[in-house]
Amino acid sequence: MSSTLIVLNLKTYLEGTGEGAVKVAQACKEVADNSGIEIGVAPQFCDIYRVASQVDLPVYSQSLDPVGAGSFTGHAFVQSIKDAGAVGTLINHSECRLTLANIDASITTARDAGLKTVVCTNNVATSAAAAALGPDYVAVEPPELIGSGIPVSKADPGVVTGSVDAVKRINPAVQVLCGAGISKGEDLAAALELGSVGVLLASGIVKAADPKAALDDLVSKV
Ligand SMILES: O=C[C@H](O)COP(=O)(O)O
């Protein structure tokens, strides 16, 4: 069963000590409650605890490292991410690429800790490869459209439909999101028509003058 999911990646757009992330997360929560659409937010590692403890919505890590407890320095440890309040994680974002072996290990690490996994891919072939590793979601995002304001669902619909078909063939339990340039209600509606179950997005909302109004528009055509 697929229900619509929106994941808002805050990247490193927001400076300060987390108040900005909390404010955007509160807007997400309000829009999620009003629309009935699940909206998750992926803040900076350091803001996961603050956001998750102040706002009742799904929080995702932007990445994690496949290491356990022990002699590891400078890594994003899955148990700390989970204990901070995250329910899921992005893996292999275009701005934080991993090797195939590390994608596999990150999925296993996250799943073993009970976190949902969203593996980002850049084309149909990598969507197929990611599906073979069995994450919860594959999020296909052509890198050239990221941050462009040109929605993948209109500029490159074939990468979405191609990923949906490939993922379904390889592992029907994996659901597909799409991302890059998504910001408006018509972009989300087009993404759903192409067979994805939702979107992964960032700049169109986080950099908007009024993120709450931008989110209201995003869900307005579903
Ligand atoms: O994680 C989000 C994606 O990279 C999309 O970013 P964008 O919405 O700014 O194009």
TrEMBL record:
Taxonomic lineage of the native organism: Archaea, Methanobacteriati, Methanobacteriota, Stenosarchaea group, Methanomicrobia
Xref: Gene3D superfamilies: Aldolase class I
Name of the molecule in the record: Triosephosphate isomerase
Residues annotated for substrate binding in this entry: 9-11, 146, 181, 202-203
Compartment(s) of residence: Cytoplasm
Protein role: Involved in the gluconeogenesis. Catalyzes stereospecifically the conversion of dihydroxyacetone phosphate (DHAP) to D-glyceraldehyde-3-phosphate (G3P).
Protein family per UniProt: Belongs to the triosephosphate isomerase family.
Broad class of where this protein is predominantly found: cytoplasm
UniProt record, GO biological process: gluconeogenesis; glycolytic process
Keyword Nucleus listed: no
Domain of life: Archaea
Organism: Methanolobus vulcani
Keywords: Cytoplasm, Gluconeogenesis, Glycolysis, Isomerase
UniProt-listed Enzyme Commission number(s): 5.3.1.1
Assembly and oligomerization: Homotetramer; dimer of dimers.
GO cellular component, one term: cytoplasm
HAMAP family cross-referenced by the UniProt entry: TIM_A
